Structures are given as C-alpha cells and as structure tokens.
Amino acid sequence: MQKNLLLGVEAIGQGAIDGGMSGVYAYPGTPSTEITEYIQENPLAEERNIHRKWSANEKTAYETALGMSYAGKRAMACMKHVGLNVAADAFINSSITGVNGGLILTVADDPSMHSSQNEQDSRFYGQFAMIPVLEPSNQQEAYDMAREGFALSEETGVPVMLRITTRLAHSRSGVVRKDVLPENELLLPTDPLQFVLLPGIARRRYKGLLGKQQLLNELSDSSKYNQYIDGKEKSLGIVCCGIAYNYLLENYKDSVCPYPVVKISQYPIPEKMMKKLDADCDEILVLEEGYPLVEEHLKGFFAKGTPIKGRLDGTLPRDGELNPDHVAKALGREVYEGIPVPSIVANRPPALCQGCGHMDAYNAMNEVLAEFGRGRVFSDIGCYTLGALPPFETINSCVDMGASITMAKGAADAGLIPAVAVIGDSTFAHSGITGLLDAVNENANITIVISDNESVSMTGGQDSSAYGKIESICAGVGVDPDHIRVIVPLKKNHEEMVKMFREELAYEGVSVIIPRRECIQRASRRKRNISRQANH
Amino acid sequence: MKSDIILAGVGGQGILSIAAVLGMAALKENLHLKQAETHGMSQRGGAVVSHLRISDQPIASDLIQLGTADLILSVEPMESLRYLPFLSAKGYLVTNTNPFINIPNYPDVEQVLAEVGKLPRFVAIDADQIAKEVGNVRASNMVMLGAASPFIDLEFSKLEDGIRTIFERKGEAIVELNLAALRAGRSFAEKNM
C-alpha cells in the first residue's frame, strides 16, 4: 500500500476529491487554507474540472456549496472557525433545508489562537444545527471522513461538519488512499419546496430535522469512528475526542491504556457508549480539544452523579490546545521537564516583512496622526494588524473581518474626528463593502485606508477577489471619485503620501486612500516561478 | 528505532526544507512519521517550531512530550534555547551560530552562545560560513541537517537520497550543492561533538 505523506488539511483535500466532490468553496483562513490550495493543484481535480476557485467570503462560499448540493452534486465548504461566524446564517438554516447532493462543511478551529482572534469550538455550531459532526483523530481518519462524509450527508439528508484543530491540520503523516468515487449526476430535489424556508415549510422541515435526531444518535453509537475500548482498571473511565486520543496513548507504553476509553470522532455524543462507561467506572475524565462540550453534557447526564473531570474542574487547563503533557498531568503521571528556558530568551512575535508596503503606509499615517494623538485608527484582519505592535503602534482595533470601516463610522458618529479605518484589499472585498455603503449613505466623516497588496497575504498570497476592482467598487458604492486616491507606498513617495493623508483627513466626508503595491512575498514567489519556468 | 526531533527557527528561514528531506528519508525506509508544523501568522518572522517524529513503531501523538526529545535542531541560536524543556536528559542540541535579529531586544549573541555552551551535549556551527565555502549560503539548512545527522537514527546515505528526491526538480547543480552542504555539516559535527 502506497502511503502518501500528507498534512491533515491535505488529507481532507484528497479525501474530498476521492469522495466524488464536484466543487470546493472557501475563503483562506489559517488553519484551513491548504485544503483548497491542495485541491487547486491536484491533477485529478483539474481533470474532473472540480470547482476550486476562492470565494469572496465564507458566507458566499457556504451558500454556493449549498447551491451545488441543491443541484444534486457533492460539495465542500472550508473555513476557519471564525469564518463560520460569517457563514453561520446560511449554515444553521441549511440544516433545516437539508441537502440534495452530499454537503460537508470543513471547519478548522485554532485553540491557543496561533493565528486567530479567539478559540471558539465549532462543535457547538454542529450541536446547534443538530447535524452530525466528524472529528478525526489522525490524518488517515481525516482522509476517510472527507471521502465518506458526502455519503453520510446524503444518507441523513443534512450537511455534515468535519471539524479539525490546528495541530491535526498542520501535522503530516502517512495516508493510504482508497478508490476514487464517481461524481454525482445533476439531479434536482424531488420536493421543489425543500429549500424554501417560508415559515409554514420551515416548521414542517424543522420537525423533520428533530425527527432525524434519533437516527443520528444511533449512527454515532454504531460509527466505526467511535469506539469503546475496555480496560482492566475501572476506577477511571476516559473520554477522548479527536486528537486527544493520541495524547492519551502517548502516555502508555505500546499505546495500551489500563482504563476503559471511549474514543469519540463522530457526534452527536454516542449515548450508549457513555452510559456503559458510566456504569463501569467510578470517575470519568474527559479529554477534548476546545471548549468542554462533552464535559458539560456529561455533568448533567448521569443520574448517579459520577464525578466528571476535565477542563471545568481544573484537571486540565480551561483554555488553549491540549498536548500529551497536559494529559499526563491529568492522569496523575509525572512529567519530566527538560532544561528551563534561559531568561535571556526574548519573545519573537511575527512582524511585517522587510520592504512591505504596509510599513510605508503606516509611516506616513503616523506622521500625520501624531498631530491628533493616538486612539483613532480602527483596523481589521490581515498582515497590517501587526501595525498594532512596535515600532508602528498605529492601530487601535482588530475585531472581525470588515469591522474597521464600521467601527470608524460609529466612533465618528460619536464625535471622534478624524476617525480612520485601515483595511486590506481582500478583507475589504470580504466584508468591507457593505460598511462602506453605510458610511456613504450618511456621508460619515471618516478616512478609509485600503492598504492594497493585491493578495490575501497573511494566509500565503492567495488571489484577492477585489483585484483590479477596488476603485470601481468604491465609486460604485458612491464615494466621490475626487476622494478615491491611489498611491504607491514607497519611501520616495513618503512626502506625497503624508500630504494626501493630511488632505483627506481634513475632508468632511468619506474618503478612500489606496496605497497599492504588491505583497513582497507574493512578488518574489512570482519572480521565482517565472525564472524557474524560463530555466525549463 | 525512534528519533524525536524539535526543529526550530524563525519564520522564513525554511526549517521545513530540513523536515522535507528527513520525511522523505523516513518514507523511503518505510518508517512511521509524524511532523507537526507551524503555519500562519508566525511565518511572518516569528518563532517557528516543528515536531518531527520518526519511528519503526506506530506513533501516537503529533507533539513530542516535554523532556523526551532526542535532538533540538535549530537554524538560529536563540531559538535553539526556547525549546530546551523538550530536550531529554541524553539529548543533543545542534544550532547554527548566526543570529537572526529582527527584534529590538535580541540578547547579546555571546550570552546566547554561552547558554548553548553550558549544555552537556551540543554542536554549535557557523552553517552560513560553511555553506558559503561549499558554494551558496542558501544551502545552510542542509549544513545544519548534516551537522545533526550523527544524532538521528537514519543512515547517512538515506539523507543523501532524500536530498536527491526533494531537490531533483531544481536541477543537478542544486542537488550537488545541497549534498556537499550536508557532507560538510556532517564532517564538522564529527570533529566537534
């Protein structure tokens, strides 16, 4: 059997292709980005002409995937955990419309916030939507679940969530591929009103969703991904969710745990297995990556009051990702810590790259804003968020995609003049345009800097959906063309940029300044690719 | 056999090229492998680390436990110290001596190297200089891999094969450069262990 060395995210991409998927829809977001990138570069995806271009945001991605499902084909939407907040309206309602072709939502959570604003646990969204959630414990399961998830979605008639976390997303291991399944034929839903959520229809469909819950419970208890692994020592029973299972096994020689273990990789929580564990064991320890979803559930579940240990009672840390050492301590095992980190070791946070255009924009902004004092720059999600840190310390907010323009407007409404928004080109396309419309409609006195590096850079330089369209979008939304100003952010243009900022801050209305220079990482990649092609 | 390796460096220094060669060598030997990487924000000049585990037995965790790493292989000296709690009592630390200074509070380099020198088992190597001598400073990561190779339970020839496979598409000259870098690193380590 040929093993392929794949990242968890790549295993999902391959699994989806081999599972007969006809389209992937996504917006880049760490740690989910490489699923779509893998599919974009895959020869079979090209041969089958699987849809694999980026969407403008997670909501458009999910809705488009739902449209493909409506037409009978298998589709996947991919996003990071906070992306699901953007797509939540479509996602929650899609559990009521149900699917036609199989639909998988792959969502990658980021506990410990390696590259995120929070560490929300997407399993709660799955529970909220009342659909099956798959949570692989390793790369092979990630492949298998992506491949088989479409069939589970078609069998149950609802979307299926595939939930991973950073560690599995970005860890590589051997994966064995299975047969490639055919794509579905185009096929309309048998009920032409299935997707029409008028109240009368929605009420009927919602009852249908509730009626499916018993089936989903049974599927969890019989799922090959969930296992009851017996052990001799019944003083403790252990519940492991997803990759927590590996951290448990790491603590035992030859991976044999003496306690009974329930491995959960498919939700809803397998109730029969839980009841058996409760009947067999004196105490239960819950190991889960993310929020204490299972732990909370069990605390209210068992009549005899079995003590439940986990993140809520302090047995494990309440926040952050798990690791084998946390699990060792929870099991009462000694952890040998090597040599302490010498005190001279300094933190090394990420920083803007040398030569980055955002730097030139911030230098010019800082010079002008010094006259007004700090505290009036609202920003957004992207590389330029690093402008909050020294040496720039320019920006004062980073909340969610698009919030720069709207928060600047709110502050201006409150009387903070001048108020400035800093947003990237891709974030503007993702969620900035509607906020700009609000600002234009009230002629808000704000200055918006769309720092345009012509790519989605923080996630690795993907194509930005607003490429070449930013001025026309702004003008179309109604910004006065005299106050849409473009400049190349380079040191030699510093004085001109300063003058431009000063003029637009003085203008009482919506102005847009677009410092535009290609991301230097993307530019150097492009040049390398050109020279490589020239050499062959 | 089992080799648990912490690969350390700064985003952009290309530690994953080292992991790729090791991964290829392990795959060719039909060994089990797990390799947890750092992607995302830290790749912008932040501290990055990869946990690389190779074994002839199935591997459970993607992450290495504290105090159990056989080797810390760092392409930057201060970064080599950041992961000392992972090093086992018998483990080796192999680091490039060239600092990557992109923060204002980078400590005195002599002090950093003095901390490295306190360890019972280490190799500190000017991989940039050695890479220049064999042809190109960009091969310094393969010098580092060579310097660490005595402490990794894989045959040296398998690492050479790994380089041939990984760099094949970049042409014969690049393959030879990286092989020379690997051998020069190995030779330095053997003299300075």
UniProtKB/TrEMBL annotation, chain A:
* Keywords tagged on the record: 4Fe-4S, Electron transport, Iron, Iron-sulfur, Metal-binding, Oxidoreductase, Transport
Record's cofactor remark? Binds 2 [4Fe-4S] clusters. In this family the first cluster has a non-standard and varying [4Fe-4S] binding motif CX(2)CX(2)CX(4-5)CP.
- Write out the catalysed reaction: indole-3-pyruvate + 2 oxidized [2Fe-2S]-[ferredoxin] + CoA = (indol-3-yl)acetyl-CoA + 2 reduced [2Fe-2S]-[ferredoxin] + CO2 + H(+)
UniProt domain Thiamine pyrophosphate enzyme TPP-binding: residue ranges:
380-513
Q: Which residues form the Pyruvate flavodoxin/ferredoxin oxidoreductase pyrimidine binding domain?
A: 15-175
Superkingdom field = Bacteria
Q: What InterPro entries does this protein's entry cite? A: HACL1-like (IPR045025), IorA (IPR017721), Pyrv_Fd/Flavodoxin_OxRdtase_N (IPR002880), THDP-binding (IPR029061), TPP_enzyme_TPP-bd (IPR011766)
* GO molecular function annotation: 4 iron, 4 sulfur cluster binding; indolepyruvate ferredoxin oxidoreductase activity; metal ion binding; thiamine pyrophosphate binding
Q: What class of enzyme is it?
A: oxidoreductase
- EC number, as in UniProt: 1.2.7.8
GO BP terms: namely: small molecule metabolic process
Q: Which cofactor does it need?
A: [4Fe-4S] cluster
What the protein does comes down to: Catalyzes the ferredoxin-dependent oxidative decarboxylation of arylpyruvates.
Record protein name field: Indolepyruvate oxidoreductase subunit IorA
Species this chain originates from: Gaoshiqia sediminis
UniProtKB/TrEMBL annotation, chain B:
Keywords, sorted A to Z? Membrane, Oxidoreductase, Transmembrane, Transmembrane helix
Q: In this protein, which residues make up the domain named Pyruvate/ketoisovalerate oxidoreductase catalytic?
A: 11-186
Q: Which residues cross the membrane?
A: 6-27
- InterPro entries, per this entry? IorB_Oxidoreductase, Pyrv/ketoisovalerate_OxRed_cat, Pyrv_flavodox_OxRed_cen
What domain of life does the UniProt record list for this protein's source?
A: Bacteria
Quote one Gene Ontology molecular function term. Answer: oxidoreductase activity, acting on the aldehyde or oxo group of donors
Q: PANTHER family of this UniProt entry?
A: INDOLEPYRUVATE OXIDOREDUCTASE SUBUNIT IORB
Q: What is this protein called?
A: Indolepyruvate oxidoreductase subunit beta
Q: Which organism is it from?
A: Gaoshiqia sediminis
